[in-house]
Amino acid sequence: MSGGYAPSPPSSLPSQSSPSGNEGAMRVLTRPVTFVTGNAKKLEEVRAILGNSIPFQSLRLDLPELQGEPEEISKGKARLAATEVNGPVLVEDTCLCFNALNGLPGPYMYVLGTSTVTSLKWFLEKIGHEGLNNLLMAYEDKSAYAACVFSLALGPNTDPLTFVGKTMGKIVPARGPKDFGWDPIFQPNGYELTYAEMPKEEKNKISHRSKALALVKSHFAATGYHFQINGSS
Ligand SMILES: O=P(O)(O)OP(=O)(O)OP(=O)(O)OC[C@H]1O[C@@H](n2cnc3c(O)ncnc32)[C@H](O)[C@@H]1O
Ligand SMILES: [Mg+2]
């Protein structure tokens, strides 16, 4: 595990308390939220976007992903992560959706509304940026969107909450550094640069990830979770 917080006490389940008796129930978390991912670049972005807004640490773990609707994949990952960590966790699942493609077969593609959603980790490894472009060769419509579903589970056996962020754009031949997934082939609407060509701070202002995380931050602000970590109040 990495992150700025000391090792956790054994109990991590959220508890309910109402210290003054008239403020309603307040959730006390005895551990920071653990962001679980196998992807170092995602972690970099999440760290940069969250800053110090939520006490969090990270755990590098490649969780198995059940296929299904994006929210179900993300929730499934959160349930596995919460059991693994035995505490509050945040996970996310990202997908890239091609509006022109509908219902390509295979276990790693499924249809969401009118778009085809792919498990791009697998797809990227198999066919690369050029292959992804080629999928759209026969279509004039190159429009696409990047979507991100974060799931927050406060502990094992709790129902995860989901937060969705979406950024519209188009698929273009690869431009820019190739160090993060499909960033070189996604050009967000209103920009002449691909995600990969943009300065990181710029991507983090407009990305699917930052939009979903803005909702996560609002949730934390609105629910008033109280972190009581290692005796701190
Ligand atoms: O452990 P997890 O968090 O699941 O990490 P992952 O790399 O498996 O991530 P996903 O299943 O969500 O990602 C599907 C693919 O999309 C890529 N990806 C995710 N977010 C991206 C982003 O913001 N820009 C470019 N590629 C991204 C990622 O590298 C994978 O190849
Ligand atoms: Mg994954």
In brief:
Pfam families: Ham1p_like. The protein has 233 residues and is α+β, with helices and mostly antiparallel strands.
Q: What does this molecule look like?
A:
ITP binds at residues 37-42, 77, 93-94, 180-183, 203, 208-209. The protein is α+β, with helices and mostly antiparallel strands and 233 residues long. 28% of the residues lie in helices and 27% in strands. The chain contains 5 helices and 12 strands. Strands 1, 4, 5, 6, 7, 8, 9, 10 and 11 form a 9-stranded mixed sheet that branches. Strands 2-3-12 form a 3-stranded mixed sheet, with no helix packed on it. Helix 1 (40-50) links the parallel strand 4 (33-37) and strand 5. Helix 1 crosses helix 5 (208-223) and helix 4 (200-206) packs across helix 5 (208-223). The longest helix has 16 residues, at 70-85. It binds inosine 5'-triphosphate and magnesium ion. Magnesium ion is lined by residues 65, 121.
